[in-house]
Specification:
Aconitase, domain 3; five-stranded parallel sheet; 14 helices; globular
């Protein structure tokens, strides 16, 4: 029976020769990730159901990454960190990346990749909807709730329904002014925020396979904004090259069968793509960037698991080098490793950090920061009627803080170009050599 990547991974982890969409199976879990927002709730349920002194099923397979409400004076947020620390000490967990230490990393989805917790052919669950990011490594990765996570902590298993699969294929080559964020917003605009509900979004085609690992991570990151269960890209030499310095564990590259069945299959001409934005207040409210030039902005925000990787900041710096921003511009590296790269990576002899500071941007510490709004003292959070262009993944009312603010989602190229003009701007205006 022909199967997709997702089918094969779940079948193998269920101990079955084959599965098909709609089947329900018990799946063995390779990695469980939680963070400061959902970790305390997960821990409480685990202790209630398995006992106050119960031990997790496998210490080496639990990864805890505080990242959301980190740099704040909020006592409730800080208490969450204390709960994580106590649990890690009780369980003697080796993969805890604590804030305030040299081991702190930043945004969980990027840290998982950088620390070698993402491996082709494996199953990863996380208590965060953007856990689908890890599908870029050719693995099954999806977000779950606290109750499911607590069950995994105690058993190492989860009951999973096999999803149908959708295939999005991009032929040719993406223009140099197009980033993965543009591709995502184009597709979500096509199918809607419920268009992939409980389905796999499989990305394929020459243009996709030519993307870097970080751009592949962006592609998979927002599957949930289309309702997707997971996203996946077939692992290849690009994947292996990224992993070789990050993990010494073996892994299995899984490929979809040539005759695998998809409930939806669409082919795009990569060369025809244009820079796009998602207007307030939904990721599927798509428009071409050039059609929104009348939208005045108060703020630009470049960061998050979607748009805070070094690839994203290189793109932004290419636009901002030698220029001055006209609106408040916030730069938030996803992780400490990205933050270090801001100092070491140079354009025209200047580090990215120097370029951003010279342009007048404000630099925050590695974390989720304002992507999820957060406590009132969160860096970059909106507090009023600000109109923001952001490289984050959601623009629902109140997502970045104030319910009165309006957020336009865009690529780092588009966000940076817009920061220079004070209105939504097609980045091609600042990229004549790439047009």
């Amino acid at each position: 029976m022909a199967m997709t990547i997702t089918d094969k991974i779940l079948a193998q982890h269920a101990g079955k020769k084959s599965v098909q969409p709609g089947d329900n199976v018990w799946v063995d879990v390779d990695v469980l990730m939680t963070h400061d927002v959902c970790g305390p709730g997960t821990i409480a349920i685990f202790k209630k159901q398995f006992g106050a002194n119960a031990k997790v099923w496998d210490r080496d397979k639990v990864v805890i990454i505080p990242d959301h409400y980190i740099f704040t004076a909020d006592k409730h947020a800080n208490r969450n960190i204390d709960i994580l620390r106590d649990f890690v000490k009780e369980q003697d967990l080796p993969h805890y990346y604590d804030v305030g230490t040299d081991n702190y990393k930043g945004v969980c989805h990027i840290a998982l990749a950088q620390e070698g917790h993402n491996r082709p052919g494996e199953v990863l669950f996380g208590t965060d909807s953007h856990t689908c990011t890890s599908g870029a490594f050719g693995m099954f990765s999806t977000g779950i709730g606290n109750t499911d996570a607590a069950f995994i902590l105690g058993t190492g298993k989860l009951w999973v329904k096999i999803p149908e699969a959708m295939r999005f294929e991009f032929t040719g080559t993406f223009p140099p002014y197009i980033m993965a964020k543009d591709i995502l917003l184009q597709v979500i605009g096509d199918i809607g925020c419920d268009g992939a509900t409980y389905r796999t979004m499989e990305w394929a085609g020459e243009a996709v396979y030519n993307c870097s690992m970080e751009e592949r991570m962006t592609l998979c990151n927002m599957a949930i904004e289309a309702g997707g269960k997971n996203a996946v890209i077939e692992a290849d030499a690009v994947t292996a090259d990224y992993l070789k310095s990050r993990t010494d564990k073996s892994y299995q590259i899984v490929r979809s069968d040539a005759d695998a069945k998809y409930c939806f299959h669409k082919t795009y001409d990569a060369g025809a793509m244009e820079p796009v934005v998602a207007r307030p207040h939904s990721p599927d409210n798509r428009a071409l960037a050039r059609e929104c030039s009348d939208v005045k902005l108060d703020r630009a925000y470049i960061g998050s698991c979607t748009g805070g990787k070094i690839t994203d900041f290189i793109a932004a710096a290419e636009i901002l080098v030698g220029e001055k921003v006209k609106i408040d511009t916030f730069i938030v590296p996803a992780t400490r490793d990205v933050e270090k790269d801001l100092h070491s990576h140079k354009i025209d002899g200047k580090s990215l950090m120097d370029i951003f500071i010279s342009a007048g941007a404000q630099i925050g510490e590695a974390s989720c920061a304002a992507c999820l709004g957060g406590p009132k003292d969160t860096f970059g959070r909106t507090h009023g009627t600000e109109v923001v262009i952001s490289t984050t993944n959601r623009n629902f009312p109140g997502r970045m803080g104030s319910k009165e603010s309006a957020v336009y989602l865009a690529s780092p190229y588009t966000a940076a170009a817009s920061a220079l003009t004070g209105h939504v701007t097609d980045p091609r205006e600042f990229m004549p050599a790439k047009v």
